[in-house]
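Let us work through a complete example step by step.
Step 1: write down the sequence.
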Amino acid sequence: MRKNAKQLPGGCFAMGTADADANRGDAEGPIRRVHVESFAIMPTTVTNTQFATFVKRTGYRTTAEQAGWSYVFAGFVQPDLAEHVRGSAAEAPWWLGVDGACWRHPEGPGSNITGRSNHPVVHVSRYDALAYCAWVGGRLPAEPEWEYAARGGLDGARYPWGDELNPGGRYACNIWRGRFPDLNTAEDGWRSTCPVDAFPPNGYGLYNTVGNVWEWSGDRWSAETSDEVYAMRGGSYLCHASYCNRYRVAARTRNEASSSAGNLGFRVAFDAAR
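Step 2: predict the structure and record it as tokens.
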């Protein structure tokens, strides 16, 4: 896998944002100059095919498989699965805990990943991501590394391609288009995950660093805490300006390490080759 990683030279960049619409409490700012050492990072998030190979060769069972359930977006849960629904998330009722939901069955029992081999693997906890990274000899990227790579050399830009969400009227990422959470027009071509390389890469050759799926980072949400809450970056296909405009490159959010959901994946990083 490492042979396909993008080797980045490292250097200083402006991390964070002073955007007026930055999410309060997410500690996106202040803007500060941060130095990143040279490292390598995969151009895409880990795919279903890649994760399936890992599982086949190791016999690994994900956190969701062991627990017996995971979170699925309510709009994807079929009516005949009502008896499998455990309830909704307290602060986000559009997330339903569904028995049997896991990376193999993204929408719960009866669903599968046929036709999604090159889509990002989802329903993976941070523990699952770490296990895969260890298997390929890599690790999760630290937040500064992730943001440095995601920016693609555009220091201070709002998105990996510049400051305009739809440059020249073209869609550049997979996010919610329409009225959240009841109407997604899918004008960008996708209602759920899309292939990991569906949109043009950034200046460093990385694909979908915003939108599509959230990506686990290697860092805790806050250095002041010791709990198992970690930062995630990049936003997902469910992000919309009305409630979650975290498809901006400086945006961040958090989750417990054991959590999994249908919009959460990861990307592998490596220490610089010696």
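Step 3: interpret the result. The first helix runs from residue 48 to 58.
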